[in-house]
Every structure is written in C-alpha cells, then in structure tokens.
Design a protein that fits this description.
elongated; mainly alpha
Length: about 100
C-alpha cells in the first residue's frame, strides 16, 4: 500500500461509486424472484430478508472496495451476486431467463 492521499474529487467519486453499488445491491435483493410454487418459498423469502437486514452491518470501506472491484470487472461482481441471490430465492438462472421472454 502507498500513503498517497485521495483528492477531494477522488473521494467524491469513490463515495458516488460506493453509494451506487449499495443501491444496486439493495435493488437486486428486493427484486430477486422467489418461486411461488416452491415448498420452501417462505424460507427463501426469509433468507432474502436476512441478507437485506444485514447489509447495513457491512462496513462502508468494504462496500467501497466491492464497488471498485465491480467497476474493474465492468459490473461482473454484481452479476455474480445476482446469480447467488437467485439461488437463495430458489430460482435457477435459466428460470430467470425464461421469465423474461
């Protein structure tokens, strides 16, 4: 690591990037589809609610690091998280794609 300080513009950009990432992550959680026909639908909804409830416990600097990683991966990290959320919701990625048709 270096001891280079960020400029005010760099700090503002980092905060904007992190806040956008957090907002998109929250949206991904709330829009995750739960298969209503599943016998585990209630448990899957509770799992998604637990994830959403613990999001505020993640340190902001960690969210900044995740936002930077997501930017470096051109959105790939958030895509991976969304696929993971589909698993919690009990919907396969293929089911999700079929619903969009």
């Amino acid at each position: 690591m270096t001891d280079v300080e960020m400029t005010d513009d760099e700090v503002a950009a980092q905060i904007a990037r992190a806040d956008c990432f957090i907002e998109r992550l929250r949206d991904a959680i709330t829009t995750t589809v739960v298969n209503p026909g599943s016998l585990c639908a209630d448990a899957q909804r509770r799992g998604l609610q637990r994830i959403a409830a613990t999001l505020d416990a993640v340190p902001y600097v960690t969210m900044c690091n995740l936002a930077n990683l997501n930017a470096a991966m051109r959105g790939g990290l958030l895509d991976v998280i969304k696929v993971g959320l589909l698993a919690v919701g009990g919907v396969t990625a293929r089911d999700s794609q079929d619903d969009r048709r």
